Automatic annotation (TrEMBL):
The gene is nuoH. NDH-1 is composed of 14 different subunits. Subunits NuoA, H, J, K, L, M, N constitute the membrane sector of the complex. It comes from the Bacteria. This is NADH-quinone oxidoreductase subunit H. The keyword Transmembrane applies.
Amino acid sequence: MDAAAAIWEVLDLPIVIFLMLNFFLIVASTLVYAERKVSAFIQERSGPNRVGPGGFFQSFADVFKLMFKENIVPAQGNEFIHSLAPVLMVVIAMSTGALIPWARTPSGDPLAIADISVSLLVVLAMTSISVYGVTLAGWSSNSKYSLLGGLRSSAQMISYELAMGAAALSVVLYSGSLSLFDIVESQNHLGSFFGWNIFRNPVGFIIFSVCALAETNRAPFDLPEAEQELVGGYHTEYSGMKFGMFFLAEYVNLWMASLLIATLFMGGYLIPGEVFLIEWLGLGGAFLTVLQVAVFLAKVSFFAFCFIWIRWTLPRFKYNQLMNLGWKYMLPISIANILVIALLVAGYQLLVG
């Protein structure tokens, strides 16, 4: 038994990481299927309905097809950077999920792969690195269309990251911590969903959600890959599984953005009426942990649906509209929101103290 326990101590984290990575792959495939079905519903058509039940295996068939497509690298491009860019996008997108608390364990600890005191800061830092993947893809292809897509992405991500960071800072003011677990628990003080940051900080919620949409390069913020203007943008010169990796990174980033929005503003894994479940019904322990994971997944799935819904509803911005929104509106409003919340928090502390 001691030997088995020692072996499990060594292998438990790698096994959890392996399962988490495969979970993200399945989630990305499911989101692709959901995107096709939701867009088909909006456009009054049936969508994929041939491969598997209801066409569910169409995404897996697409991956299988991409695996056998030829990998083409432009003759005048940089082959190493051309291969590095999609790998960088996928690795960063999947690594972010290790810091998200999925539930509270029966012992009161966060159910997460990595629990660190500055997890929000690390998540924002890692997501900001993803701009390098897009920029390097555009530059290494030695194509004007790809280069313009990479430059657009750099300008767009830098513009909206400032407002996104300011919106996240407004959440930190309420919680007094950079830990995502502490941020979730700080929304539990009223014992109901009215303690969630979406009610305490609605301006921050709107700004963070819009900026998250821009950071994932999805419509109406898909200027880096606008097919009417740039053929395919930064991944014009990509084929086979390299293109598939960009596709994978986009949908993993969509899921990660939904995870962050639910964690920071929708109470994360918190269940409305959780105090009632624990004190009156006695539903604590492992059952409560499983229920929290299920509720968290439901919240995240709702925001992922909203991302898809927005893509097939709103037209693409013009480039000047995109930059004006980020610099002239989002950033000043987010800074003003920080000042207002700081005054509210300081006033509350004076009254209580």
